[in-house]
Design a protein that fits this description.
Layout: E1 3-4, H1 5-16, E2 20-23, H2 30-36, E3 44-47, H3 51-65, E4 69-73, H4 77-92, E5 96-102, H5 118-122, E6 128-131, H6 138-150, E7 156-162, H7 163-167, E8 169-170, H8 188-199, E9 204-208, H9 215-228, E10 232-235, E11 249-253, H10 259-267, E12 270-274, E13 297-302, E14 316-319, H11 322-327, H12 337-349, H13 362-372, E15 378-381, H14 388-392, E16 401-403, H15 413-423, E17 429-434, H16 435-438, H17 445-451, E18 456-461, H18 466-475, H19 490-496, E19 500-504, H20 510-519, E20 524-529, H21 537-546
Parallel strand pairs: 2-3, 2-4, 4-5, 5-7, 6-7, 9-10, 9-12, 10-11, 12-13, 13-14, 15-16, 15-17, 17-18, 18-20, 19-20
Antiparallel strand pairs: 1-8
Helix pairs in contact: 1-2, 1-6, 3-4, 3-15, 15-17, 18-21
Length: about 550
């Protein structure tokens, strides 16, 4: 049977198990769009408003589901818009495949209209960047792209599709299904060495990260930590990968890291790091562990050999997938019960907050959300000081999820929430967004409306780029410049997109407004007045510092 490149591509994706794709149309890949016409209900194209939003959705979908999030964009301006999502997927270690229309092969190298050398542009941003010149090789390259995106350290793959290749005919057979690749596992002798290191510890600590955990893997790790009475800390924005209600959970090592978590990492004598890439935020600017040889005896476990020893030289490096490694763990005992108990107590004490300096007190709001949200809620956020609320003051149970960018990308939260509703229409999805953060991608309310995937959006509206203002006031006191926002009427904007919308002026008004938001069949946007009224700029910064809100990412 003869197929054109667009049809062959789509049939391969169906065989691999793809069911959703996010994108903005372009004439460079019309053959793919034509093939997708016949797959509605099996492989659906979610029409987005901007390529950056589409790429964020694909990155979030990959992070949430463990399957590659698919993004379809056109050449040149389309894919450069999408680059923010590619960068985010890479730093999140989230599986993603970006399909990009490309100029015809007869035009390549002439700086044709919207031409880009994708290997040069994305070679350092993605796990792999490739251009398909021969339609007959599409199945081969798609199979490799899928495996590359999902194995080792998961991440994004960019596949360029020349326009004439997509319209060429081929008798090549599509893929018949995904390849099953077992996680690498540690041999018994290596596991014995790891157990010996832990048994000899006085203050062991587990640090975990990554989004490629299975339910069985997470349960195995929790069982080991609880039976061994070892405290657990999550890497930056991966606290949803461990049950926060477990007595061993002790907090998140991320932006705005609490002193008690810094102390745990510094004072640990054996650090079991599983599925962690040791980014700047998790290491507090690479200060909590000495580079290149930490004072802590480091056991670094990762599915990719390229992550082990990349920054820190471990006492023991183990190339193993997180789930295979967790399944091989057996309880150990040692004199660290008091160490674990203190770690847990200090984390719990962090939820006792003083009143916050704004008409809507987010400490009270977050406490209310902890009580009323369902156990399988999905929270999302972009970047800014406001992220402290979903990231530091929510307790994630085993079924709750957090979609938040390790890249510190503003505008991620709303597209991620839309992607979550596409993946799980029946689950409650809450997006936390600052007013500046929200306006980076607010047009994706249109995507949510058209796809019937409307989340609840909480806009923390203080009229400033909060994180940047905090740094500005610290380094250039009394010289505010370029960080004050004049905002539209968010309620009217949201209603124009078919959402239920309200302005919440006072803390005591939030519970009823949120109940109405939960009851809305078309999603909701709540514009929360979090402006610190009657405070001078210097007082504002002082309050933020006191609450530990002066974050280092986004605004």
């Amino acid at each position: 049977m003869m197929r054109n490149g667009g049809q062959l591509l789509v049939e391969c994706l169906l065989a691999l198990g793809a069911t959703k794709g996010f994108g903005v149309p372009g004439e460079s890949y019309l053959a793919v769009l034509d093939a997708l016409h016949d797959t509605q209900g099996r492989l659906d194209f979610v029409l987005c408003r901007n390529e950056g939003g589409a790429a964020f959705m694909a990155a979030a979908y990959g992070k949430l589901t463990g399957q590659p999030g698919l993004c379809f964009v056109t050449r040149g301006p389309g894919v450069t818009n999408a680059s923010i999502g590619i960068h985010t997927a890479m730093q999140d270690s989230a599986p993603m495949i970006v399909f990009v229309g490309q100029v015809g092969t007869d035009m390549r190298g002439r700086e044709a209209f919207q031409e880009i050398d994708y290997r040069a542009v994305f070679g350092s941003m993605a796990k792999w960047a490739v251009e398909v010149d021969d339609v007959a090789r599409l199945p081969e390259i798609l199979g490799r792209a899928w495996v590359t995106a999902t194995t080792g350290r998961p991440g994004p793959v960019v596949v360029a599709l020349p326009e004439d290749m997509l319209t060429s005919l081929s008798a090549a057979a599509p893929l018949t299904g995904p390849v099953r690749i077992a996680e690498p596992a540690a041999e018994p002798g290596i596991m014995a060495a790891a157990f010996d290191l832990i048994k000899g510890a006085a203050r062991p600590l587990i640090l975990l990260g990554g989004c490629n955990w299975t339910d069985a893997g997470k349960a195995a790790l929790q069982g080991f930590a609880e039976a061994s009475d070892i405290p657990v800390v999550a890497a930056f924005r991966y606290q949803d990968q461990f049950d926060n209600h477990a007595p061993v959970y002790a907090g998140e090592a991320g932006v705005g890291m609490p002193p008690n978590v810094k102390r745990l990492i510094r004072e640990a004598d054996v650090l079991l790091a599983i599925n962690v890439r040791f980014g700047e935020m998790t290491t507090d600017g690479y200060t909590l562990l000495s580079v290149p040889v930490p004072a802590q005896r480091l056991i670094h476990v990762h599915g990719s050999d390229r992550e082990i020893g990349k920054i820190y030289q471990p006492a023991l490096g183990i190339q193993a997938g997180p789930n295979a490694f967790a399944a091989a763990l057996r309880p150990v005992t040692g004199p660290w019960a008091a160490w674990r108990a203190q770690a847990r107590a200090e984390w719990e004490a962090g939820f006792d907050l003083p009143p916050q300096p704004s008409p809507v007190d987010m400490g009270v709001v977050t406490a209310h959300l902890r009580m009323v949200l369902p156990r399988d809620v999905i929270l999302t956020n972009g970047a800014g000081n406001f992220t402290v609320w979903p990231n530091k003051f929510f307790k994630f149970g085993p079924n709750a999820r957090l979609l938040a960018p390790q890249s510190g990308a503003m505008g991620y939260g709303l597209p991620a929430a839309v992607a979550a509703k596409v993946a799980h229409p029946q689950r409650t999805v809450i997006c936390f967004a600052g007013d500046g953060d929200f306006q980076m991608s607010c047009q994706e309310l249109g995507t949510a409306m058209q796809a019937g995937a409307q989340p609840i959006v909480l806009i923390l509206n203080n009229g400033i780029y909060g994180t940047i203002r905090a740094h500005q006031e610290r380094h250039y006191p009394a010289r505010v410049s370029g960080t004050t926002l004049e905002n539209p009427d968010f309620v009217l904007l949201a209603k124009a997109y078919g959402f239920h919308a309200e302005r919440v002026e006072r803390t005591e008004d939030f519970p009823e407004a949120f109940a109405r938001a939960l009851a809305s069949p078309t999603g909701a946007v709540l514009d929360l007045n979090t402006s610190p009224e009657a405070l001078t700029p210097r007082q504002t910064l002082s309050q933020m510092r006191a609450a530990g809100l002066a974050a280092r990412d986004g605004a």
